[in-house]
Amino acid sequence: MRVAMGLFGLQQWFGGDFAPVPELAGIAERCGVHQVSLTDHVVMGEHVEHYPYGRFPVPLDYPWYEPLVTLAAIAGATTRIRLSAGVLIAPVRPAALLAKQLATLDVLSRGRVDIGLGTGWQREEFAASGVDFSQRYAILDDQLAACRRLWSEAPVTWQGRTLALDRIHQWPRPVQARLPIWLGLAPTPRNCRRIAEYGDGWIPITGQPQQITAGLAAIRDAFVAAGRDFSGFECRAVLAPVLRADGHCDEAATCARLPALAAAGVTVAEVLPIRFCRGPDELAGFLERAVAAAKSGA
């Protein structure tokens, strides 16, 4: 099992300045970290009580930095680490633009994109982007199909439910023959079929091994039904921290959860340094220990 570094909250180490954060990816790269990832929101509406996964973790003025811009900066500061998101809210972006941005990022990084895509949860974000929230899954399907075609064919003539392409040419193409798409979707029967059709990895919202095992089993069954080979399929889950009585994270107890995640089928464990380190001076040591624990726990 490998390690991803989540960038969430790291601007707090620099008095709210996010500009130094891409340089931390170079430290992560030297420590053997496999991926970097960050979360996406284009805008934030006030009704965070509709957040479907419990209490919304940050205030309305939390700064959500645009992932593809950030990953481009990281690409220029690194040579090996892979570039991801957890997840990019794809339907609020036009399909052709999304395909161009991802292909460009793959070229600039020399083939290091493992993009994570999802549909988001907040109606206000879609309304502010001029996109119909009720059509988000149809839009995502069309985006995925369009991206695959634009990355491999020219001209492209194709008709989806929400999008039509008529003799469209788009260059550059990604460096990778198949740019990996990791989907952050609940493992419902329809989503499992969607992942089997388009996906190369799964990003579950949960860090619970039993739920991940069940979700991967359902996705595997969908792969079999679709006639796709499941070998090489990836799964990235956030390593849920164990809290001590004083409310601080217990690093050793948290890393002790890694073998259970590996047994569940997780191939990449995402760690959030903001939860374990007081500042950038502690980052390298923490990441080295996490990478070693993930290797031994796998």
Helices and strands, in order, run as EHEHEEHEHHEEEHEHEHHEH
Name the average pLDDT: 97
Estimated radius of gyration = 19 Å
According to CATH, what is the class? Alpha Beta
Instruction: State the fourth-level CATH superfamily.
Output: Luciferase-like domain
Strand order, largest beta sheet: 3-2-1-11-10-9-8-5-4
Q: What is the CATH topology descriptor?
A: TIM Barrel
Structure summary, number of beta strands: 11
Q: Which architecture name does CATH use? A: Alpha-Beta Barrel
Broad structural category: alpha/beta
Report the span from N to C terminus: 5 Å
What share of residues are in beta strands? 5-15%
Please tell me the total number of domains: 1
Segments where pLDDT lies below 50 for 5+ residues?
Answer: none
Word description of this protein:
This protein is an alpha/beta fold. It has ten helices and eleven strands. The strands form two sheets. A nine-stranded parallel sheet has the order 3-2-1-11-10-9-8-5-4. Helix 1 (21-30) packs across helix 2. The model has no long low-confidence stretch (mean pLDDT 97).
